[in-house]
Design goal:
The protein is α/β, with parallel strands linked by helices. It has helices at 16-28, 43-48, 90-100, 112-123, 148-169, 184-192, 207-219, 236-239, 243-256, 260-272, 292-310, 330-333, 345-352, and strands at 2-8, 34-39, 51-54, 105-110, 128-132, 172-177, 197-199, 225-230, 276-279, 316-321, 324-329. Strand 7, helix 7 and strand 8 (225-230) form a beta-alpha-beta unit. The structure holds 6-O-phosphono-beta-D-fructofuranose (F6P). The site of 6-O-phosphono-beta-D-fructofuranose (F6P) has 10 residues, from loops. Mg(2+) binds at residue 112.
């Protein structure tokens, strides 16, 4: 007999359902009595006791379905120890609901912030398994997060479409790619779509170098240029500011431009007089059906999580390292961000074929 709880927390992504399906199928195929409780809308469901008993049928036909059958929400880690507006102690409430249902374990699907709360619950004595979801691929300890490659596909297709129109009009186009504070998604989608310039937070850009790269292309006879810009891209000057100064600068920039790409476009336009267009695919990147790679990854991670649960082996994130599923102690990975390193092979390879990072 096993009683497990499931919840999905933070921004959604593709393959959340596929992962839950993998876990439940892995357990249901091997355990006689299984009870699965799904908490609704992330940690909120666990705090306020909003849950439903799920059956195998709930997990059938969801391998290809985007979003999450449980719903999700953001409950920031930094406020988790603060009582809610009704004075409820969130951590205590989560523990009480866990014990009330006599759960053997709680499986939490989420990104970095979610993982920190998952680790806190582990420290509070709950049996926890964390599954690394995010289109940002920024979770330390796993080579890949589910959702990432599906988002790479969408961002790549967006840039592919821009390519044809950019070449017809001889324009400079900026496509802004999600990824929060890291550049994985922009790097992969940028390289996969043949972007000419890729700007990511890990390599602060010099606008002069960006313009040089655009001009160099024009000189070679290429009338158009495509820039893949991460939503967290930052200039060299801004990167040199103190935390406080940067916060102020960002607040000022926000009043002038909806996002970083528009600020970059304005600078290029001012310096060169060129016609620039900005495209922001936004949340499309998190939507739709998971790509085959993510379905496979989600199924493997889900199955590996089921194996841990059957062995009562808790307190881990289930990730993938060098092609093999692996349990990584939550205490080791929680709170760490996996960023692109400026001397990564991908960056060197991109630079070798002439892609500019504006540095
Ligand atoms: O973490 C996933 C992500 O899509 C980031 O890439 C992006 O910065 C953020 O979530 C957007 O958050 P929200 O859905 O709250 O606007």
């Amino acid at each position: 007999m096993k009683r497990i709880g499931l919840l999905t927390s933070g921004g959604d992504c593709q393959a959340l359902n596929a992962t839950m399906r993998g876990i439940v199928k892995g357990l249901a195929s091997n355990i006689q009595d299984l009870e699965v409780y799904g908490f609704e809308n992330g940690y909120k469901g666990l705090i306020y006791g909003d849950y439903r008993l799920l059956t195998s049928r709930d997990f059938s036909g969801i391998l290809t379905r985007g979003g999450t059958i449980l719903g999700t929400s953001r409950v920031p880690f930094k406020t988790i120890r603060e009582p809610d507006e009704r004075g409820i102690d969130k951590v205590e409430a989560m523990k009480q609901n866990y014990y009330k249902l006599r759960l053997d374990c709680l499986v939490i699907l989420g990104g970095n912030g979610t993982q920190k709360t998952a680790n806190l619950l582990r420290e509070e004595g709950l049996n926890i398994i964390h599954m690394p979801k995010t289109i940002d691929n920024d979770i330390w300890g796993t080579d890949m997060t589910f959702g990432f490659y599906s988002a790479v596909n969408i961002a790549t297709e967006a840039i592919d479409c821009i390519h044809t129109t950019a070449s017809s009009h001889n324009r400079v186009f900026i496509v802004e790619v999600m990824g929060h504070k890291v550049g994985w998604l922009t790097l992969y989608a940028g390289m996969a779509s043949g972007a000419d310039i890729i700007l990511i937070p890990e390599i602060p850009y010099d606008i002069k170098k960006v313009i040089e790269a655009i001009n160099a292309r024009a000189k070679r006879g290429s009338g158009f240029t495509i820039l893949a810009v991460a939503e967290g891209a930052i200039s060299k000057e801004d990167a040199a500011l103190s935390k406080k100064e940067l916060k102020k600068k960002m607040e000022e920039d926000k009043k002038l431009y909806p996002s970083v790409s528009y600020a970059i476009a304005a600078e290029i336009e001012k310096e060169t007089g060129m016609e620039i267009r900005v495209t922001v695919p936004g949340h499309m990147q998190r939507g739709g059906s998971p790509c085959p790679y993510d379905r496979m990854l989600a199924t493997r991670l889900g199955s590996a999580a089921a194996k841990l649960i059957m062995a009562d082996d808790y307190g881990y994130m289930v990730g993938i390292v060098n092609g093999k599923t692996k349990k990584i102690p939550l205490g080791e990975c929680a709170g760490k961000l996996k960023m692109v390193t400026p001397d990564a092979q991908e960056i060197k390879e991109a630079k070798r074929i002439g892609i500019s990072f504006g540095d």
